[in-house]
Amino acid sequence: MQGMGGHDMVVLRGLILYMVCGKACIYNPTTRQSVTLPVRPVIKFSQKVKGCDESIIYYFGHDPVLDQYKILCIVSTLLTSINSLTSEHWVYVLESGGFWKRIGFDCQPHIPTIGRLCISGVIYYLAYVSLSCYVLVSFDVRSEQFNMIQVPKELSGLIRDNPIGFIEYGGKPAIFDQTYLIQMGKVDLWVLEDGGAWSTKSLVLQPCQMHLLNESIKLLVRGTTQTDEVILAPCKLFSNYYLLYYDLRKNDLRKFNVGLTSDHWFGKPYADYILFDKNESILHLET
User: Fold this and answer.
1) Which residues contact 22 (CB under 8 A, 6 or more apart)?
2) Residue 214: count of CB within 10 angstroms of its CB
3) What does DSSP say about strands 100-102 and 111-112: parallel, antiparallel, or unpaired?
4) pTM over 0.70
5) Sign of torsion, CA 27 219 62 156?
6) What does the pLDDT look like over 164-219, one tens digit per residue?
7) What pLDDT is recorded for position 187?
8) Of 31-35, 38-42, 50-54, 168-172, the least confident
9) Widest distance between CA atoms in the chain
10) Average pLDDT of the chain?
11) End-to-end CA distance of the chain, in Å?
12) What is d(CA 16, CA 26) in angstroms, rounded to the nearest whole number?
């Protein structure tokens, strides 16, 4: 329902984190159990200030060593009148008696942009610290420590202006640039290697697969499969809806027809949905 939310969803190991009426909720599709997390304390900017832009984004992480789930909340505030940026950082442990805890942050204040990955106990997302400086932020779920890595300058404009994808590739965070996919059949893949260096490679589709792309349909990255296929989908729903799977290892593109039946959703802008992997969870949710 309009105004309630529920569209900002993150899937992790069979659980779903989503927002409704400004509150974070966890849903387990396997057990059909849902819990609403306690409201996070408000410390700064409790009252609306003219020229103040506030962003609140939640991330979902899992520590494989302790088998513990944590929710990370980033509250970023930009005072446009004086060009001042601040950010708060909160953590909630998903367990009985859990509570929000504000954690220290020694890096630059930032505003998250795209990407919500959790790989081997580390949460990754892209953010900007200024209009021309983008970084990749990592958060170790167990130690609750942050780290920032500079994004290559070539990508700063792409992150700001183009529908790129932030994906997992080979167990590492990667940026999937599809700027020239529809026009030229070309994609660029940037991978964060061990040690913080970025590697890049370009892939070009075979001419016989170009017919799978439609110049009039804008595609968005919807994640990856367990076999490193990038999932691309039209941003608007229509009757003969489909998904495209780009195999980065074989440089191959395949099409899967979904075939929606309800015309209620046709033409809706930027349809928001999530694609599940095969993970199921029998975790009993407690707060």
Assistant:
1) 5
2) 11
3) unpaired
4) yes
5) negative
6) 889 999 899 999 998 889 889 999 999 999 888 999 999 999 899 999 998 878 88
7) 92
8) 50-54
9) 58
10) 82
11) 26
12) 6
- Among residues 24, 141, 10, 5, which one has the least CA distance to residue 75? 24
- Site of tokens 């994808």: 165
Segments in 72-211 forming alpha helices (H): 153-161, 181-184
pLDDT for 208-250, tens place per residue?
Answer: 999 999 887 888 888 888 888 999 988 777 777 889 999 998 9
Give the tokens for residue 259: 């075939």
The amino acid that residue 248 corresponds to is L
Q: What's the CA gap between 110 and 112, in Å, rounded?
A: 6
Q: Is 82 exposed, middle or buried (0-12, 13-18, 19+ CB in 10 A)?
A: exposed
Question: What is the Cα gyration radius of the chain?
Answer: 20
The one-letter amino acid at 153: K
Of the candidates 139, 157, 31, the one whose C-alpha atom is nearest the C-alpha of residue 87 is: 139
Q: How far is CA 220 from the centre of its chain?
A: 12
